[in-house]
Amino acid sequence: MSEEPHSTTILGRLNRLRNWLSLAGMVLCASAVFAFVLLVAVDLFATHANPYMGILAYVVAPMFFFMGLGLVVLGYFLESRRIRKGVPRKEGGLVLSVDLSRKRDRQMMAAFVLGSIGFLLLTAFGSYETYHLMESNTFCGQACHTPMEPQFSAHQHSAHAQVDCVACHIGPGTTAYIRTKLNGVKQLYHQIRGDFNRPIRILNPNLRLAQETCQTCHWSQKHFGDVPKTFKRFLADEENTPFTVQMLLKVGGSDPVRGPVEGIHSHMNVSNKIEFIHSDDERLEIPWVRVTDADGKVTEYRTEGFTDDISKHQIRTMDCMDCHNRPAHEFLSPNDAVDQALATGRIDPSIPWAKKNVVTALAAPYSTREEAQQKIEEFLRAEYPDDKRVDALIAEAKKIYATNFFPEMKADWRAHPDHIGHKDTNGCFRCHDGTHFASDGKTTIKGSDCNACHIITAQGAGEELEKVNLKGHDFFHLDSEYLEPNCAECHNGQIQEE
Ligand code: HEC
Ligand code: HEC
Ligand code: HEC
Ligand code: HEC
Ligand code: HEC
Ligand code: HEC
User: Fold this and answer.
1) Nearest CA to 341 among 400, 407, 388, 394?
2) Angle at 385 between CA 379 and CA 387, to 5 degrees
3) Residue pair 493/400 in contact by the 8 Å Cβ criterion
4) Which one of 320, 325, 429 would you pick to mutate in the ligand 3 pocket, going by the greatest count of ligand atoms within 8 A of its CB?
5) pLDDT by residue (tens digit) across 467-479?
6) CA 384: distance to chain centroid?
7) What pTM did the predictor assign?
8) Structure letter (DSSP) for residue 301
9) Contact criterion met (CB below 8 Å) for 288 and 310
């Protein structure tokens, strides 16, 4: 066994790998392959795949593999050099020469084998633990701190706070699986380079969420019927005058077996199909819409100026996300956030001009959170020099800012408008604003009058609010009946100038 392997034959060269360094390298390589296979297997059998597993399996494991390979090669060269120089093998030196008839060699061999097995087990344990860490919401939202912080934070205040990121963000099927893996690796690359987009948007249609994802928990056949909803608003006047709107939202349903196909959820792709073309990434401009009803009858609607040949456009089928686009990451507008704080008493409504001042402070442009916190405080302190309640007001304003505004990522209500409703952004009025016409040039999309989606059962404040009308009030806007169709022409989540 201790014969010098001088020969340059293949066997002779292979013999040069018989050194401790190369052997350790081989163990490292084997562990990396083992970890890779294990990770892929665990991920395949997991309830939902982990987007960042790709980083472990395709980046970290290969890194160890190449490190091992490096050791193997290094050992080979050191051994070749020794042979070239004619240096004899040292007892217990770098060179591996095992003679199993010797007790010492047997002990060393046993220690090496046991050590390797231990190392392999540690690798398995380590990669499995890392895998679980990477699956957690903490990893999604915090390990990659700056880029995902807005979505992580908003998620914690949403109806889906208990739903894991991966339950929504990884679609069903193998292609979605592979795509998310590759995308996880790409995200790591951009995170390291710091060149991710601000704000982050999911624009790649392949990575956008699919209706099937929501349907793993929600049943689109469910009939909701009428759902009561109350909006507690406050005017931007000295008294912060309350103005409440109570309505029944006609959420309805779309499965004829469970109730009439009616209302808002009638476009759920059960009894009819709605398709559209959007001319911008945010899907704010929708110039063309097509409905196919249960009998197969097709109706197309277009806005007046839109004469394009539709075959040149990508047609999208409407799904949950075209209305519920912020189910887990709603960034409240300054107006909504302050109304909520006033309604719950977190801001004292008896502080004169509280609504107007806090909204103004929140809506001003800031480039960092520190700057915002400091300027919000300065602004409010200057507005209320002698009012003791200003400290509480400032604290609340800062808290609202921290939860809903992320200047470093440019993420806020402007960057991520919510399509439910129509007040601050067109939302439902992207289609239901009476400007889309069928081929006769007269018929518009059904459901575009004020009582189609909801009836206002009560509105105003005090005695006014007690006048309940189950047939529906006309909306009484400030001091007159409402006439203009588009709310978002004036409302944008900040203070309205009259
Ligand atoms: C209930 C489902 C759901 C859960 C849970 C969820 N998201 Fe989202 N997420 C969405 C939807 C819907 C969008 C918007 C997609 C679109 O606009 O097409 C989105 C968008 C995003 C975006 C793109 C930026 C944006 O705001 O549009 C990021 C980043 C993101 N989510 C991260 C996360 C993280 C991190 C978690 C866990 C802390 C998480 N999501 C949990 C549904 C979810
Ligand atoms: C893993 C399960 C799960 C998935 C996936 C899921 N949801 Fe939910 N969703 C829930 C639960 C649970 C609630 C109820 C929370 C509560 O009321 O406590 C909920 C509530 C809601 C609500 C009512 C919100 C409110 O403010 O009351 C809407 C709307 C909704 N989900 C839409 C969606 C959409 C759209 C998707 C797909 C992007 C989705 N969900 C995906 C579990 C899920
Ligand atoms: C046309 C727009 C639209 C589409 C498409 C749509 N929804 Fe809704 N959905 C609404 C509106 C509006 C409400 C009323 C609740 C509100 O305003 O907060 C609602 C309410 C809900 C609620 C809560 C009902 C409650 O208890 O108050 C759930 C859950 C829900 N939708 C899930 C879904 C899912 C899942 C899909 C896709 C299969 C979907 N919706 C498609 C507009 C839509
Ligand atoms: C992409 C365009 C589009 C968007 C966005 C949209 N809808 Fe619709 N909606 C339609 C079309 C098309 C119909 C079918 C009308 C028809 O058959 O003429 C419809 C039908 C309806 C109906 C049934 C009307 C009836 O009398 O049968 C209601 C209610 C409704 N939508 C509410 C909403 C609400 C609420 C929103 C916002 C959360 C919304 N829609 C967003 C296109 C849209
Ligand atoms: C296509 C359906 C649809 C039509 C048409 C529609 N609305 Fe709405 N409206 C909604 C939905 C959905 C909401 C609830 C938004 C939410 O849950 O945040 C809403 C909310 C409101 C609110 C409460 C807003 C707030 O944030 O305080 C008022 C007021 C209102 N609508 C008035 C009107 C008036 C007036 C008209 C006629 C010009 C009208 N709506 C037409 C769907 C519609
Ligand atoms: C011509 C401009 C204009 C249009 C269009 C308009 N509003 Fe307003 N709205 C105002 C002004 C100005 C105020 C008073 C602002 C204040 O005191 O906070 C106001 C106040 C309100 C308030 C109470 C305070 C608040 O900010 O929430 C509600 C609710 C409201 N409008 C809903 C609507 C709805 C819903 C629509 C569309 C159907 C609409 N408005 C269209 C100008 C407009």
Assistant:
1) 400
2) 110
3) no
4) 320
5) 999 999 999 887 7
6) 39
7) 0.87
8) E
9) yes
